[in-house]
Write a structure and sequence with these properties.
By secondary structure, this protein is an alpha+beta fold. Helix content is 22%, strand content 39%. The chain has two helices and eight strands, in the order αββββαββββ.
């Protein structure tokens, strides 16, 4: 995999236009280099499910977004790249009041498919709260 085709700033601008209903001020792309990325979801009360843990839909959305970010950082602004598979393993409870970090990396980047993994972290803990594998389909450009 080569150098990044989109920087964190490029990705931020692109996603604010293309996905304004998902990408908002609660999300920040902290790093993207064409192979890896880190996306922060700032904590808000609506992320919690009964029992005071971070909800599954919140974690799945963040993981899918992080995979999209790392892929676009590698291939450029291909808005029609889509998720074809996402598998998530919930490992431990996400702490209420803490931001959630998604650390994604591409495992394989082909002409039509990309495979990656995302570790979701709560606050400053090094122990993942979830592990995700995902596959994206890349359209003809």
């Amino acid at each position: 995999m080569a150098t990044a085709r989109m920087t964190a700033a490029d990705l931020d601008a692109f996603l604010r236009v293309e996905l304004p209903h998902v990408f908002n001020d609660d999300l920040a792309i902290e790093h993207a280099d064409g192979r890896t990325c880190r996306v922060r979801q700032r904590f808000r009360q609506s992320m919690l499910r009964p029992g005071g843990t971070i909800s599954g839909p919140t974690l799945m959305t963040l993981a899918d977004l992080a995979m999209y970010v790392v892929l676009l950082s590698a291939i450029g602004p291909v808005g029609l790249a889509v998720t074809t598979n996402l598998n998530i393993n919930f490992l431990r409870k996400g702490a209420p009041g803490k931001d959630v970090l998604a650390a994604a990396r591409l495992l394989k980047l082909g002409k039509r498919l990309a495979v990656g993994e995302v570790n979701l972290l709560s606050g400053n803990s090094p122990d993942p709260i979830a592990h995700v594998t995902a596959t994206y389909s890349i359209p003809n450009t």
